[in-house]
Automatic annotation (TrEMBL):
Keywords: Iron, Metal-binding, Oxidoreductase, Vitamin C. InterPro entries: DIOX_N (IPR026992), IPNS-like_FE2OG_OXY (IPR044861), IPNS-like_sf (IPR027443), Oxoglu/Fe-dep_dioxygenase_dom (IPR005123), Plant_2OG-oxidoreductases (IPR050295). The gene is LOC101491517. PANTHER family: OXOGLUTARATE/IRON-DEPENDENT DIOXYGENASE (PTHR47991). This is Protein SRG1-like. Belongs to the iron/ascorbate-dependent oxidoreductase family. Residues 216-316 form the Fe2OG dioxygenase domain. It comes from Cicer arietinum (Chickpea). Coiled coil: none annotated. GO terms for molecular function: L-ascorbic acid binding; metal ion binding; oxidoreductase activity.
């Protein structure tokens, strides 16, 4: 038995299906565009200052690290070192040779695209309720006056399977549920292996990081960004960092939208067909006492093309305790973050609007 399995067995079995956060319901963006493709309603318009306060540096795109997953699996020391540098300097990287079949990735894109083409009445059968974040809608809206993102979302919790809420799993088109399951199970394989490599680069035994999760919880968020007549005025997804341990993103091959913070600039992550984008989340930032940062990112929209991103979040179970590891703390690196129960941290994050790094800042020990 692996240490991971042992940990799951000895930790208390939690079977209550979790609920995460409430939010204010918002208009559907895809319908807004369908009704009037030229007009961008006031509630979505951002100030020029907000959009452009950080430099846009597309020339740095080619420097976003690319990690060969097969080399990692073979224990290649150079690739592990590359992973370490990627996590420290960028917080983001793309993985190739991950073994997720290209046909399965395409099938996921196809069935989800079909779902979004159904009439709104059909999709709204899975509408996100005001007191949770699963279903079809948009999260992180906490007031009627908040400026909104140019994006509709479909969210389901996939693992552990006993936490699923079947009422939010679309029954249209046929096969969507099976495809989400097949895709997510492959992402789980890749993601858990990546978490083991993170454990190693954090200076721990391979299975310690996963063990700390009690169980790895995995959610899927599909972000659907309709075209926008004035893309320079809106944001698809507000700058934020992810509360996860790691996040694995499948992007469209032919349209760029994801931008990450690198030093004082926004750098677009140019899609590599077949690759997956991975980023380090807040959990790793806290555990590593800030050595690895969960980097701020945002999604921008396009004038003529819709874009869809398939985002899998892997994170600890609610009762996991998360705080800086002792070996990350010394006289030069005093403890920077409080110890938190992960469920509380996650709910604190999900019950606020997306706002850069404010949630990790709130977890810091005040001077
Ligand atoms: O659309 C994207 O590429 C990014 C999505 C994202 O950051 C998220 O869903 O947390
Ligand atoms: Fe994100």
């Amino acid at each position: 038995m692996s240490l991971n399995e042992a940990n799951v067995l000895v930790s208390t079995y939690i079977d209550e299906v979790p609920t995460y956060a409430s939010h204010v319901p918002v208009p559907n963006v895809q319908e807004t565009v369908r009704n009037n493709p030229l007009k961008v309603p006031e509630r979505y318009v951002r100030s020029e200052e907000e959009i452009q306060k950080v430099l846009y540096m597309p020339q740095l795109s080619s420097q976003v690290p690319i990690i060969d997953f097969t080399l990692l699996s073979h224990g290649n020391k150079d690739e592990i070192l590359k992973l370490d540098i990627a996590c420290k300097e960028w917080g983001f990287f793309q993985i190739v040779n991950h073994g997720v079949k290209i046909d399965l990735m395409q099938q996921m894109k196809d069935v989800v695209a079909e779902f979004f083409e159904f009439p709104i009445e059909e999709k709204n059968k899975y509408a996100m309720p005001p007191d949770d974040i699963q279903g079809y809608g948009h999260t992180s809206v906490v007031s009627e006056t908040q400026i909104l993102d140019w994006c509709d979302q479909l969210i389901v919790l996939v693992y552990p399977a006993r936490f699923r809420k079947p009422q939010f799993w679309p029954q249209i088109p046929e096969g969507l549920k099976d495809t989400i399951e097949a895709y997510s199970s492959e992402i789980k394989r890749v993601g858990e292996e990546l978490i083991n490599y993170l454990s190693l680069i954090l200076g721990l035994e391979e299975h310690v990081l996963i063990g700390l999760h009690k169980e790895v919880v995995q959610g899927l968020r599909v972000n659907y960004y309709p075209p926008c007549n004035t893309p320079e005025q809106v944001i698809g997804l507000t700058p934020h960092s992810d509360a996860s341990t790691i996040t694995i993103v499948m992007q469209d091959d032919d349209v760029t939208g994801l931008e990450i913070r690198y030093k004082e600039s926004w750098v677009p992550v140019t899609p590599i067909p077949g690759a997956l984008v991975v980023n380090v989340g807040d959990t790793v930032e806290i555990l590593s006492n800030g050595k690895y940062k969960s980097v701020e990112h945002r999604a921008m929209t396009n004038k003529n093309k819709k874009r869809t991103s398939f985002v899998s979040f892997l994170f600890p179970r609610d009762d996991a305790e998360v705080g800086p590891f002792d070996h990350m703390i010394d006289a030069q690196n005093p403890k920077m973050y409080k110890n938190v129960t992960y469920g509380e941290y996650l709910r604190h994050t999900l019950n606020r609007k997306l706002e850069g790094k404010t949630q990790t800042d709130a977890a810091k020990i005040q001077d």
